[in-house]
Amino acid sequence: MDNTLPLISVIVPVYNTEAYLIRCLDSIIAQTCCSLEIIIINDGSSDRCPVIAEEYAKKDRRICLVHQENAGVSEARNAGMRLSHGSYLSFIDSDDFIEPDYYKTLYRILYSNNADISICNKRIINSTAEYPFPYDIPEGVTLFSGNEALFELVNDKWLRNYLWDKLFKKELFSGIEFPKDRTFEDMAVMHKIFYRAKTIVITNEIKYNYTLRKDALSGSMTICNQYHRFLAHMERASFFENVNRGDLALKAIIAALHCAMNATALTLFHFTTHREKEYLHAIKTWTSHYKDKLHTLPYETASEAKKIRRFLMSHTFFMVRYASKNAYIRMKSFIKQLLPAKLVEFGSERIHRGLLRGKRANIEL
């Protein structure tokens, strides 16, 4: 590949990631594809990120550096899109890094298959291990039509809602921005992008390295996070209904209900703020509309059907034993940060026994 290829605008939001930023920027400027415009948005970092970014901007003329007051990752990405000149868009998180042929691979499979979006497999890196995710993508390159891709996106298995493992035609984002002051902002727009795409292509080659951080905002188990995830699924359901994809709308409703259950479960473990109570009230108001539509929902298993039905029909709105395993594990971690060790051990043991025996712990909202 050479400089005659279409320009790719690489948008890198940066906020307090000085431990990872050099690795990230080195991996971008070392790309074997040279037609890059690298837009770094420093979102009010209070560490050395601004200094590091300035040093790289001086060394590489492809870098456009913007400093702004902290407004969140959505506004940083929106600012990057407004500044972009490329025919293609890419979003890289500043604590991650990419393989040397990341853009060469994504552009090659996109161009050769006349696709609108290309996707690669990724490697998850934490403090103790590295592993591909997802691990079961078919060998080689797989093509999806727009309708097929939407279905797989809602399934959230092969085609995920992440921004950073994809190369997009810029035109797909026309008139679309990321919602401000929300986590899971990628989930809030990805269905709109996929709806506009005619062909999506994915390769099982691992070209993106994702750093799994314990302090990552979107990974924390909070009522706010679960509400924002719930909101994304709720908006997605409305979108699918408006474009006559009722089948996908129903699947989005199921996903929203799972988020609702996780959010209400968290009220068991800390005092809720006024804002959190507003979130919970909004969830309760929305879910109440589905009590008479239980038979229309496309449950994947009998167990899921039972869980959701009891959740919706419960006078107390939530029973702790219906929390997902993942939610329960994260909630235990949250408890440990707040309580003395002996009390944590005693309380966790009682909750665990209650879950195993199916005992009900009622919480009024």
Strand tally is: 10
For the record, give the distance between the C-alpha atoms at the N and C termini, rounded to a whole number: 59 Å
CATH class of the largest domain: Alpha Beta
Order of helices and strands: EHEHEHEEHEEEHEHEHHHHHH
Structural class: alpha/beta
Question: CATH homologous superfamily name of the largest domain?
Answer: Spore Coat Polysaccharide Biosynthesis Protein SpsA, Chain A
What is the percent of helical residues?
40-55%
Per DSSP, what share of the residues sits in E-state strands of 2 or more residues? Answer: 15-25%
Shape: globular
Total domain count: 2
Tell me the number of helical segments per DSSP (H or I, 4 or more residues long).
12
The CATH topology of the largest domain is Spore Coat Polysaccharide Biosynthesis Protein SpsA, Chain A
> Can you summarize the main beta sheet?
10 strands, mixed
